[in-house]
Amino acid sequence: MTLSRRMAPVIALALLLGQSAWHCAWAEGPGGPAKKLARSACDHAAFRVVVDVGHTAESPGAPSARGFWEYDFNLRLATLIKQKLLAAGFAKTVLLVTDGPARKSLFARAARANQLSADLFLSIHHDSFLERWEYEGHEHGFSDRFKGHSIFFSNENVDPDASLMFGQLLGEQLQARGLQYTAHYIEKFMGHRQRLLVDAKVGVYRYDQLIVLRTTQMPAVLLEAGSIINRAEELVMNSPERQSLIGAAVTDAVEGFCAIRRPRNPDRVAGPPRAAAKLAPDVAPQPASPAGAQ
Questions:
Q1: Which top CATH class is 42-282?
Q2: Where are the domains of the chain?
Q3: What are the tens digits of pLDDT across the range 65-103?
């Protein structure tokens, strides 16, 4: 039996419970926006989300179409998501910023999330797929062929069913805000980067080999928030409006997931941060640095 068929009853029940919790928590006022009426079944104070900043300052990922590092985009968006989760009552939310080389940092961030006994791990990234163009006298990679977000989970995670469930909730929240996923990961020209599209409605893919998804001991999802290699979408992804929209979608998805998942350890106390994977202070991230500056 495939994962999708096996998960169908679980997902249906989860969405039903999530919608029920939503109806208890929100209602449309006459002639006005939705207003909060009561708390959902979610234990906000005990539920811990680790928001992982993809890549590191030393290994900052791909440059954008205008030559800014992916890491800077990841840090800004992840910081905003953390702030929105804290404002929603998820007081144990952790922003995970990791140092060091690329592959070594993957194991470090997974180990830190496991040490924190998190209930959910969300890694924030931005997508890239390269062609070439010249901007301000320098040649940069770009691709205007694709735009949109993508969501990944690993079937080798300790809880793949719950990982898929959160991925679908997140996809639904992004879709409800008018954001569309990119489908280019199913195309043959992607080669070794081609992925299995598990949910074609909301854009959830399987990426079984990804270290941060398969070695974390809690449900884990990676969000490629948008394509910074698309010249138009790069500008949109850098805007406070789009970042806020994504942050709201993540917060509502976490709310729905938390409503049907009990915290692993309501009385947990976070241990001291390690040097390789540190808990970020509450400071505003700096503007992106040009890729050529590093």
A1: alpha beta
A2: 42-282
A3: 788 888 999 999 999 999 999 999 999 999 999 887 767
